[in-house]
Design a protein that fits this description.
With 425 residues, the chain is of the alpha/beta class. It is built from 17 helices and 11 strands. This is Erythromycin esterase family protein.
């Protein structure tokens, strides 16, 4: 263990990371300031010193694509804050926060010093944006032919009666309703139109990604009302597929930084998720890209404050994070000096006492501090991650607004709120 106070304290981590092309950076909550600022600090060093070329985050592709345009200087927006304040899907605080705004401004400044081919992008990995992704094909894909535009209109017409309510669509599929054919037709039409465009056409790539999101989002919402584990797996497979698409599109020199919750980037094979049939991004990327170098960093805290909500779709709320359970990894690390620390985990993988699973706290966007027992994932920490950043006392994130954003499943106890554990992290 070594101290973690300044950017230079990350030197051992960067040395261990070496020439890896995949850097997966986790967090134990979506509402802790230090998790975001340490990831930003590490990301800046990875970009400047290791040649990483993009950041991909656990957010919606259409929204993050506008931020990508801003950091590359091709947006009409005058600030990152202006872009982020347009995010309207609950919970907006994940990306519409001051910490992300600061990183985006840094990226924009950095990119001004780089040729276009070396500018660092920022992209969304998630699967939720069914309606927005379909609409973006219609508005953003200038080369779309009439077949493609008609396919989009037919898909939106099929979805119209659900009034942008994902839960309503999911429930309707239990009674036999479906828009599978119409949405699949959009992807087929986009891909057919792409045949006449160059392989490096960014507009075509964006349109194909939005069409792919629509296909996987429909499947996700249809599955979420039936199976918690399978909907989780659909989501993480989609995020991994998006990582792979980004790396392929940007070529053999591409290197990617991934920002997601620990539950997504920390290898599921070394947690109790595996016994429920759940896989995740960290597992899949390790399995698929070990030869190219995959380095996973987890984060955790002992206690502090956090931004979360008491129920799905609820208000943005600052909550107390109580002291970690005594049998948890967080409690064990709290007992060790220095208080804030970097742990390189690879050397400890042969130590039986350290690879026994114990609780590792995971705070979701819905959080009840009085029910802490349900917020721990049994984990073999040295194998789940390659390194771990531990901040003993943490503070809540700084949202740009407090409205929380729109959601189709806003009521406590709604079907989607009960079944979509995948959506909580």
């Amino acid at each position: 263990m070594s101290r973690l106070e300044t950017a230079q304290d990350l030197d051992p981590l960067l040395n261990q990371l070496g020439t890896a092309r995949y850097a997966l950076l986790g967090e134990a909550s979506h509402g802790t300031a230090e998790f975001y600022t340490w990831r930003a600090t590490l990301s800046k060093r990875l970009i400047q010193e290791k040649g990483f070329t993009m950041i991909a985050v656990e957010g919606d592709w259409p929204d993050l694509y506008e931020l990508n345009r801003y950091v590359k200087g091709v947006s009409t927006a005058t600030s990152a804050r202006q872009v982020l304040e347009r995010f309207d899907r609950w919970p907006t605080w994940l990306w519409a926060n001051q910490e992300v705004a600061d990183l985006a401004e840094w990226l924009r400044t950095y990119n001004k010093t780089q040729p276009a081919a070396r500018q660092v992008g920022i992209f969304g990995l998630d699967v939720y944006s069914l309606w927005p992704s379909l609409e973006r094909i219609r508005t953003d894909f200038a080369e779309a032919d009439q077949v493609t535009l008609s396919a989009v209109e037919e898909a939106l017409a099929c979805l119209q009666s659900y009034n942008r309510n994902e839960e309503a669509y999911g429930r309707a599929t239990l009674q036999g309703a479906t828009c599978v054919t119409e949405i699949n037709n959009v992807l087929a039409a986009v891909r057919n139109q792409m045949k006449s465009l160059p392989n490096n056409h960014i507009g075509a790539f964006n349109a194909e990604q939005n069409a792919l999101i629509a296909v996987n989002a429909e499947r996700y919402y249809r599955t979420a009302v039936r199976s918690n584990a399978e909907s989780w797996n659909i989501r993480d497979r989609h995020m991994t597929e998006t990582i792979n698409r980004l790396m392929s599109f940007h070529g053999p020199e591409a290197k990617i930084i991934v920002w997601e919750h620990n539950t997504h980037v920390g290898d599921a094979r070394y947690t109790d998720m595996a016994q429920y049939g759940e896989i995740n991004v960290g597992q899949l990327v390790r399995e698929q890209h070990a030869a190219e170098g995959v380095f996973i960093v987890g984060q955790g805290t002992y206690q502090g404050t956090v931004i979360a909500s008491p129920y799905w779709g609820g208000a943005t709320t600052v909550m107390q994070v109580p002291a970690a359970r005594t049998d948890s990894w967080e409690a064990a690390l709290h007992q060790k000096e220095p208080r804030n620390k970097l742990i390189l985990l690879q050397p400890w993988r042969t130590e039986a006492a350290l690879t026994n699973k114990r609780g590792h706290r995971a705070i979701g966007v819905v959080y009840n501090p009085s029910q802490e027992a349900g917020n721990y994932v049994q984990s073999d920490l040295p194998n789940r991650y390659d390194a771990f950043l531990f901040t003993d006392q943490t503070q809540a994130l700084h949202p740009l607004n407090t409205t929380g954003g729109r959601t189709a499943a806003s009521a406590p106890g709604s079907v989607m709120a009960q079944l979509q554990r995948a959506a909580n992290y």
